[in-house]
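Problem: given the chain below (137 residues), write out its structure.
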Amino acid sequence: MNYPRILIGGLVCGLILSVGEFVLNSVVLKAQMEEFVRRCGMTPPDPKALAILFVITFMLGIFIIYLYAAIRPRYGPGPKTAICAALLAWFCVYFYNNAVGLALGFIPVNVFVIAVVWGAVQYTLAALAGAWLYQEA
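Solution.
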C-alpha cells in the first residue's frame, strides 16, 4: 500500500466529509439541531469541541482511503471499490449511530432519513474523491 497516497487521499476525503457535516448540521438541519441542544439542556459546542470533531473527521477520511487501499486487491481499483469502502464506513459510523438515536427517541424519523441519506451520498462522494488520488506504490 502507498501510505503517502493514503494520507493525501484521506485528507481530501476528510475535507469533503467535514464540509458535508458542516452543511448538514449548520444549514440543512440547523433548526432541528438547535432544538435538540435546547431540549437536552446542553449548550452549543465550543470551538475546542468543533476542532476535535474536525480532526476526528479527517482521521475518518484517512481510514476510509486506507480501507479502499486494503480491499483493492480483492475488488480491483476504481469507483466500485471506493463505494464499497464508503458504504462500509457509513454503515459502521453513520447509520448505526443514527439508528441508535432513532431507537432511543433522540432523533425524529424525518431527521434520521435526511441524515442517513445525506451521509451515504457524502461518504460516497468523499471516498470517490480520495480514491481517485490513490495509486499503488
